[in-house]
Amino acid sequence: MYRIVAVCLLAFASAPAVACLPPPPGYVAPPPLTVDQTAALIFRMSDTIVYGELLSEAYYGQPGRFRILRTYKGHLRVGSRIKIQPSWGFDPPMCAGMIGGPPPLPKGAKGVFAWTGEPELKWVSDEILASMVKQGLIAPVKKKQRKGS
């Protein structure tokens, strides 16, 4: 009896772990979106797009405190402080639900985030942000002019 159990344990131990189920037979993945298409989609899907800074670490199950430094879309005012949940973002890894929670973000992390509903740390890359500006979806950031220049 013990030999059978030992053999079974060895057989299962040597098998590779499966993270995701395979796609159904005949499945063809759709072509990826362009940067401009992705930017337009994120803009349409999001009620809020802001630039801000984490005032405390955010990790799975524990929201962080976040200060708004610039609002691109939405009703949040500059200087507002909100609680915000970590997130896998707009392009999560395959089978993210099987991996566990999203990675933690440290205090002091800054960036542009977009969400609908409850605040989430869904990063918007510089490339996507530039595309939103190029398409006229959001206003460009005006650079401050130095006096005496």
UniProtKB/TrEMBL annotation:
Domain of life where this protein originates: Bacteria
Signal sequence extent: 1-19
Keywords: Signal
Protein name according to UniProt: Uncharacterized protein
